[in-house]
Design goal:
The chain is of the alpha/beta class. The chain has a single domain, classed as Rossmann fold, CATH 3.40.50.300. It has an eight-stranded mixed beta sheet, sandwiched between helices. β3 and β4 form a beta hairpin. It is globular and about 55 Å long.
Length: 246
């Protein structure tokens, strides 16, 4: 069992920025003084090592894995166990074994938060996670587009039907504001987050703006300090922490 609060970041479909959100949320929680780990459960579509620009492997001790650590965040991903960008070609039962491996065979210690970066949809990993980590709560990520919200509703409904609490919805890529400007451009439309939250009967926790890549950073998907996006992530982290410890 993971010793700490567990939060699964879920979505109905790929391409909504779920993994980038997981990383930035972890960093925001850390700025609030929390100890945090990310477990990348997107076994086929792992991306956490690339987002954080990590090219080294975890070490082992007495048959257990010592998680990789960067920027003060502990990490485990299938990406650390394969060569380069090799694909994972597994059938369903192997996925459940990897979830068990990442939760029971890694020396995590006791932490404030474990963030599970889930694969999109309602497949084998989601089913196994609900069985193996019953203490997990969830947030559902969507974009403003109504079609994305419609698909994301399935992920939220699945969580609820398996007795997992969905603590809220996050709308990613909500709008774009140009540098030194105040205008908001709703590139992907409006209303998806509100509609999804209403359908699931939960709170819309936040709307995250689109930001240009942070080219001055070795990990460009991380929100630059002092930006509108970083402030949005800090606000999201505070709301989530209140849900657990309010």
């Amino acid at each position: 069992m993971l010793k700490g609060n567990v939060l699964a970041v879920t979505s109905g479909k790929g391409g909504v920025g779920k993994s980038s959100l997981s990383v930035n949320l972890a960093l925001a929680l850390q700025k609030l003084g929390k100890s945090v780990a990310i477990i990348d459960l997107d076994i086929y579509g792992f991306s956490i090592p690339k987002i954080l620009n990590i090219d080294y492997k975890p070490k082992t001790f007495n048959g257990k894995i010592i998680p990789v650590e960067t920027k003060g965040i502990k990490l485990m991903s299938m990406g650390f166990l394969v060569n380069g960008n090799d694909p994972i070609v597994w059938r369903g039962p192997m996925l459940g074994k990897m979830i068990e491996h990442f939760t029971k065979d890694v020396l995590w210690g006791e932490l404030d938060y474990f963030i599970l970066d889930m694969p999109p949809g309602t497949g084998d990993v989601a089913l196994d996670m609900h069985l193996m980590i019953p203490e997990s709560k969830e947030i559902v990520v969507t974009t403003p587009h109504k079609a994305a919200a419609y698909v994301a509703e399935r992920a939220g409904s699945m969580a609820m039907k398996s007795n997992h609490e969905v603590i809220g919805v996050v709308e990613n890529m909500s709008y774009f504001t140009p540098p030194n400007g105040d205008e908001k451009y709703f590139i992907f439309g409006k209303g998806g987050g509100e509609e999804l939250a209403s359908q699931l009967g939960v709170e819309l926790l936040g709307k995250l703006p689109i930001q240009e890549p942070n080219e001055s950073n070795d990990a460009p998907s991380i929100a630059k300090e002092g930006t509108q996006l970083e402030r949005a992530y800090l606000n999201l982290a505070q709301k989530i922490d209140e849900k657990y410890n309010g």
